[in-house]
Amino acid sequence: DADVTQTPRNRITKTGKRIMLECSQTKGHDRMYWYRQDPGLGLRLIYYSFDVKDINKGEISDGYSVSRQAQAKFSLSLESAIPNQTALYFCATSVFPLGQGRTGELFFGEGSRLTVL
Amino acid sequence: DAKTTQPNSMESNEEEPVHLPCNHSTISGTDYIHWYRQLPSQGPEYVIHGLTSNVNNRMASLAIAEDRKSSTLILHRATLRDAAVYYCILSRPYNNNDMRFGAGTRLTVKP
Fold first, then answer.
1. Residue B30 in this model has a pLDDT that exceeds 90
2. Is B93–A103 a contact, with Cβ atoms under 8 angstroms apart?
3. Does B87 contact A97 at a Cβ distance shorter than 8 Å?
């Protein structure tokens, strides 16, 4: 089983619908992230959470919200989906980097492909 | 934010070494240099990282220029499975939230 699991893997929805993408992890990591990937643009950070009580906006948080329900779960919501939110979404986790040379490797899920019509 | 510049694409022959360059002329003294790769239909995966000295691991080697303004990811013997997009990223110590994944370099490996 994957250490970082995203559901759903594929979703097609219509403009204006509310969508939730879920991420769960079995790695025991405190830090969790949501990224968006568009062709030719690499990955952009939407939100990140360093622990259950800590939520922070990333580069492109407008139109998105998140919920950290537990250490292992981090959900991304699109309250009213629009076509330009069509993208591949990735969840990632990491530990707090301790010690010299440790910068906290990111572990990614397999992605959730969202299409907004 | 310090940025990186990579070629859009590179080609290699199977079982030959591959040198993937990255320029980061505005790197700060505390920035770490990370490399990730993204295989088709998968999320990115960590490859290697370093600060000043060259680094080796089971996947690759990282050669860092003395002035740290550039680095090179070295795959010693490319395999077909190494075909992926490779990302060069800078990050401050104890932070992951400042990792900026650009477009990366798409590596094609020819049999």
1. no
2. yes
3. no
